[in-house]
Amino acid sequence: MGIKPSNKQEVSKMDVTIKNKDDNLLVFTVEGVDVPFINAIRRICTVEVPTLAIEDVDIYKNDAKIFDEALAHRLGLIPLTTDLESMVLASECDCEDHCPRCSVSLLLKEKGPKTVYSKDLKSQDPQLKPTYDTIPIMKLKDGEEVELEAIAQLGIGLEHAKWQPTTACAYKYYPKITIDAEKCESCAKCVEECPRGILEFDDENNKVNILDIENCSMCKTCVKGCESDAITVEGQEGKFIFKIETDGSLPPEEVLTRACDILSGKTDQIIEFCEGGI
């Protein structure tokens, strides 16, 4: 039995405005979407966009006061720059073990006394390396040595948290603050109660002004402080503020783009299933 989509479905227009952007942070507003859509993007950004992380560690020598298992675990949590264009997931590679197409080798050989940092991991591919140089790995006392080879592979956060590209990925409704001029007694109590300084009292015009509405957390402390019920705080339906912060393995805009591509692929599969029948 085939399932045909309705021709009467309305297609809404989605508007995206970038508010803040740097190497590891992207903040934008999106309008014209619903909660299931924006939450699907959030989840995919967090656990389905692949990144590179150390999976296997061959330890040849370890004189430090840290167990091999703890050392391997610590190495696995070091963020690595990722190239999704030239690499594939290990499950999709046709090699028998490891190859440059699905993995990269990082060598560590140091002798104390010194603190070993992430920059001491020497990658066979200079483009695929720790994103930060100053992540401490271990301390070596005089005469102590460590020698190992770490193999990094692509993976997704659904398998292990070390493959999550985001350190923060969240959204909230775009705030909407309404002040009823007829009810407002100009007592400025709402201004005093606001913990983020969103509101300001205008002495000249004897009214409350809204300063930075996007910084509003919608805690409604100002509403509780208004005895005349002149102020309301709510979220705008269909409009959100979205924040993506990455660990440096991938730029936030690439994480977002990849997440959209993955979601699009999922919807195509559903459409093909529906058109093919049950």
UniProtKB/TrEMBL annotation:
CDD domains: RNAP_D (cd07030)
Positions with a binding annotation for [3Fe-4S] cluster: C216, C219, C222
EC numbers on record: 2.7.7.6
Cofactors demanded by this protein: [3Fe-4S] cluster
Catalyzed reactions: RNA(n) + a ribonucleoside 5'-triphosphate = RNA(n+1) + diphosphate
GO CC, one annotated term: DNA-directed RNA polymerase complex
Keyword Magnesium: no
Record's subcellular location: Cytoplasm
Domain 4Fe-4S ferredoxin-type positions: 175-204, 206-236
Enzyme class: transferase
Alphabetical keyword list: 3Fe-4S, Cytoplasm, DNA-directed RNA polymerase, Iron, Iron-sulfur, Metal-binding, Nucleotidyltransferase, Transcription, Transferase
MF terms (GO), sorted A to Z: 3 iron, 4 sulfur cluster binding; DNA binding; DNA-directed RNA polymerase activity; metal ion binding; oxidoreductase activity; protein dimerization activity
InterPro entries associated with the record: 4Fe4S_Fe-S-bd (IPR017896), 4Fe4S_Fe_S_CS (IPR017900), DNA-dir_RNA_pol_30-40kDasu_CS (IPR001514), DNA-dir_RNA_pol_insert (IPR011262), DNA-dir_RNA_pol_RpoA/D/Rpb3 (IPR011263), RBP11-like (IPR036603), RNAP_Rpo3/Rpb3/RPAC1 (IPR022842), RNApol_insert_sf (IPR036643)
NAD recorded as keyword: no
Cross-referenced PROSITE patterns: 4FE4S_FER_1 (PS00198), 4FE4S_FER_2 (PS51379), RNA_POL_D_30KD (PS00446)
SUPFAM superfamilies, A to Z: Insert subdomain of RNA polymerase alpha subunit, RBP11-like subunits of RNA polymerase
Cofactor note: Binds 1 [3Fe-4S] cluster.
One Pfam family from the record: RNA_pol_A_bac
Family per similarity comment: Belongs to the archaeal Rpo3/eukaryotic RPB3 RNA polymerase subunit family.
Subunit structure: Part of the RNA polymerase complex.
Function statement: DNA-dependent RNA polymerase (RNAP) catalyzes the transcription of DNA into RNA using the four ribonucleoside triphosphates as substrates.
Protein's name according to its UniProt entry: DNA-directed RNA polymerase subunit Rpo3
Protein species of origin: Methanobacterium paludis (strain DSM 25820 / JCM 18151 / SWAN1)
Gene that produces this protein: rpo3
